[in-house]
Amino acid sequence: MPIRRHLYPENWDEISLSVREKAGWCCEWCHAKNKTVIQRKPVRTMPDWVEVLFVLETTGAYESTEKMIWKRLKFHGLTRIILTTAHLDRDPGNNEMDNLAALCQRCHLRYDIYQHLRARKYGRANSEQPKLF
Questions:
Q1: Nearest residue to 103 via CA among 46, 26, 48
Q2: Which of 22, 73, 82, 103 has its CA 20 to 30 A from that of 49?
Q3: For the segment 4-26, what is each residue's pLDDT rounded down to a tens digit?
Q4: What are the sequence ranges of the domains in the chain?
Q5: 49 has which bridge partners?
Q6: Residues 6+ positions from 56 with CB-CB distance below 8 Å
Q7: Euclidean distance between CA atoms 36 and 65, whole angstroms
């Protein structure tokens, strides 16, 4: 889900940067490093990914994954890690450091899956917070 800037403080970029730096530029849950190219393993073992530096092309030559574009990575079943900052209580107004975690895109999306499904089913306006009464 794209970030809705109006819900975040003006200094969100600095807050997010400090969270990712504190985590050592690695996902706090799966430990994948930011900007590395990985292939996810089909089994649930930790780590559930392996770093890929080169791929064998159909020409028989090896090509570095370092500057490969997304479509080419996807063709080979690979992805580049993009580290994000997640609100653990899902409240973008609560920016306490113990409420924030540096997560890769997969871990972040898995954490917010029910919020995304609710937004898709009921529309974004009804997905912000569940109504209790």
A1: 26
A2: 22
A3: 788 888 999 999 999 999 999 99
A4: 5-127
A5: 40
A6: 62
A7: 9
